[in-house]
Write a structure and sequence with these properties.
Length: 205
């Protein structure tokens, strides 16, 4: 099986997980969805947990590349924040909160990979973004970048918590958008607000 076929297998599993959660999807379901034998899947992945680990690993690498590209392609910190918001919309609108619950409860190794990604890459990247924004005059200089970076990264996970935001009452993306917008406006200086409004096409009266 080529790398392309392995990617197709991982993508097929992800499609089903996002629809129904991880726990309720079987290897038979994945094989049927992809039109391949279960034996073929087991040749490359020892069990569903092995497949979930591969999926999370690939997702982390993809997210890292996307974030780096956004940073490199943005003219300033505010544009970075807006572009990350746009990228997040596509991701959050697809994610079923059950996936987060299942990952945490039934796949501790994959969940640990995700937590390490948050703690090591996401927090560090956000700290650097905030520090750069302070230097550019868009972010309030009195904020503690370490505290705010950790808070923001963990807000994302909180937004998927069904005990706080039941899926039947709240849109996952709307929750994430509100948390992110609140964060963005809370950390910005007046100069940052003006530019943020421009990017958001808001008429500032």
């Amino acid at each position: 099986m080529s790398n392309g076929q392995i990617d197709r297998l991982i993508q097929g599993a992800e499609d089903l997980f996002l629809q129904a959660g991880i726990k309720s999807v079987t290897m038979d379901d994945i094989a049927k969805h992809l039109g391949m034998s279960k034996k073929t899947i087991y040749h490359f992945f020892s069990d569903k947990n092995d497949l979930v680990i591969a999926l999370v690993n690939k997702s982390i690498k993809d997210d890292q590349c996307q974030i780096v590209n956004i940073i490199n392609d943005s003219a300033n910190v505010i544009e970075e924040m807006i572009n990350m918001m746009k990228a997040s919309q596509e991701i959050f609108s697809r994610i079923n909160p059950i996936v987060i619950h299942d990952l945490q409860k039934y796949h501790p190794e994959a969940w640990g990979m995700f937590q390490n990604f948050k703690a090591e890459f996401l927090v560090k990247t956000l700290e650097e973004l905030l520090t750069k924004g302070i230097a550019q005059g868009f972010i309030r200089p009195e904020i503690d970048v370490k505290i705010l970076a950790k808070m923001r990264v963990n807000q994302v996970e909180m937004g998927f918590n069904q005990q706080i935001f039941p899926i039947g009452q709240f849109s996952t993306w709307k929750v994430q958008y509100q948390l992110l917008e609140h964060f963005n406006y809370g950390i910005c200086t007046i100069k940052g607000h003006k530019l943020l409004n421009q990017y958001n096409n808001i008429n500032n009266n």
